[in-house]
Amino acid sequence: MRVSTFTVEGQYNNEHVKVLMKDNEVDVGTVGSDYLSPEELLLASALSCLILTIRYFAKLHGVNIKSIEGYIEGDIDMSSMESLGEYTGMKEIRYHIKVESDHKNVPDILNLAAQKCPMKNTIEKGVKTKIEWIIKNENP
Fold it and tell me: How confident is the model over 79-107, as pLDDT tens digits?
């Protein structure tokens, strides 16, 4: 097994979180703000991962693909944030993928990519999470 660890840092800064990943800064805010929301970043990650996974398997299997385009949408019930015990995540995510190719094995590549896409699998199957809380108190 080859495990890769990915890291991201963030700090709250005046109504948004400044996130640092691979020397790139991204400002992340709440839904409805002028910043990208965590939900939009999740969808962007999911869509780009599936497109890149399609490209990876097409290249691996010698299938020529002229273009890949995608659109993704996800539904979340924002009122669930106000109710204790209610699920607050995405209710459904829908991918719309357009692939241009005349190769007969494209459907096999698409099925393989759908099965192997890391972000899609993480979203569908869930992932074990751990939170380490560090609380600083200036007035002991």
Answer: 887 777 777 888 999 999 999 999 999 99
End-to-end CA distance of the chain: 46
Tens digits of per-residue pLDDT, 105-119?
999 999 999 999 999
| CATH (one of 3.30.300.20, 3.40.190.10, 3.40.50.1950, 2.40.50.140) for 45-125 | 3.30.300.20
pTM, whole model, 2 decimals? 0.89
Residue showing tokens 């691996």: 60
